[in-house]
Amino acid sequence: MQTVIHAEKLSKHFGDFKAVSEISFNVQTGEIFGFLGANGAGKTTAMRMLCGLSIPTSGKASVAGFDVFKQTEQIKKNIGYMSQKFSLYEDLTVTENIRFFGGIYGLSNAELKEKSELLINQLGLQNETKKLVGALPLGWKQKLSFSVAVLHNPKIVFLDEPTGGVDPVTRRQFWDLIYEAAERGVTIFVTTHYMDEAEYCNRVSIMVDGKIEALDSPTGLKEQFNADSMNEVFFELARGAKRNGD
Asked: Where is each ABC transporter domain found (predicted)?
């Protein structure tokens, strides 16, 4: 297994506020790596550093073999990214969005035609291709957004709270798409505050107040904390962090 994301004491400060404080971890090829924590724990800030969108304050990190300080453009070319807020253009049609982002990713016309047809058939959007994306239900928007993020076969895809606001059935369908991508060798780095989604990951790190307080497989974490669910694990960590803070 090859390490495709490496972080060593990675930190991001905004003045005196430590949004991310000396986090260290590795992610392997094809792994579904969950980056969990409550809102404000530092998950999105950490992801932005790894995506080359924000320069760290200190530490070391590499993504797909490229340095997050010096090679941010190379990182961007080798990853897919789906932001917390819906990231496609709502005033363009389904087909227009696919073509637009495929062009940004450098796909040839032949590749774009082939991948567009495959994507539309996979999602069952054959009758929706000429509809404005803004008219689609949120669940369809999210699934389309993810599919576009992996259109160019990136080595790694970063997903920031991808299932926020969608119903449980759509959440499950979205994770089916994640599994399919992982089976193709795509590494998935996903942030979420839904603790039950940790069960879908190969390994999970849990952030509390900018620090990684635990990192293991879901089964390993539940055994470590003698818990029946990831929610219980998280609450134990949060209580422990609060006691230490006091």
From this structure: 5-234
